Amino acid sequence: MRISTSWNNQLGLNAMLDQQSKLSETQLKLSSGKKYLSPSENAVAATSMIDLNHNIKENQQYQVNIGAARQRLDLEESALDNAGSVLHRIRELTVQGLNDSNTATNRKQIAMEIDELNKQLLSIANTKNANGEYIFSGYKTDQAAFTDTPAYAYQGDTNQRSIAIGPSRQVTDGDPGESVFGSIQAAPLTAGSISNVFQAVAQISADLKANTPNKNSLNDMDTALVRFDTIRASAGARLNALDDQENLNADYILDNKSTASDIGDLDYAEALSKFNLQQISLQAAQQAFTKVQNLSLFNYIS
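and the corresponding structure tokens:
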């Protein structure tokens, strides 16, 4: 079988181009740090990488959700702590006002301080977060939870927002105002059976101003304090749940990233060794091509 000079040259050229292509591919892998440049190189690995990256992004979103829920619950817990302190002070003043040694003037003075504390309590109920949302208004976060009129109308709703913090775990990031501060009741109000804390405090103030303090008002204060403590404990439990799930998510993300790295990251030592061998192979192909080009009878005809 005879091989023409052009065909011989083409074979040498093809060998050089093949080595050059392999070298370029390895060079690209070294620069990108990826074991595979296209899914066709390893379809199973490509599918696994898609699943792993999806899992990582999903759990990273859970971590973002946890951060948002923690911000709201931290703020709620702090608000309840402040509300409890204010209410304890109101209770102390109520006990002081019940003392028979007080004059009508003394009781009016005590009532004035209680009124200011009730305003402070109302301000706490209308706390807003960093996004300007009222945290005790349920879904109606753009409206103050309670009005500042004597009726203390509740303007929020009874909904609680649930946030996904894990693949099969959700947590509520707040509590509606009526659950925290009590439902509004229609007049007439009777001391000792008033659910809403603002109405209960307003009744204490009114009784003191009328010089007719009612010891049953202490029951309203105690009921409100128990409610504050109960909801605060619930918020604390949810914060603990966030911490636990955050750690689980972080471990899961780390495991997935480690697995993805094992599948898709380049082994630099192996790749560099391969790169060096391919450089040698390319040089050999180039040298062979040069020599083959000189193997022609015409070179020996004088």
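(Above: one complete record from the training split.) The two ends are 27 Å apart (CA to CA).
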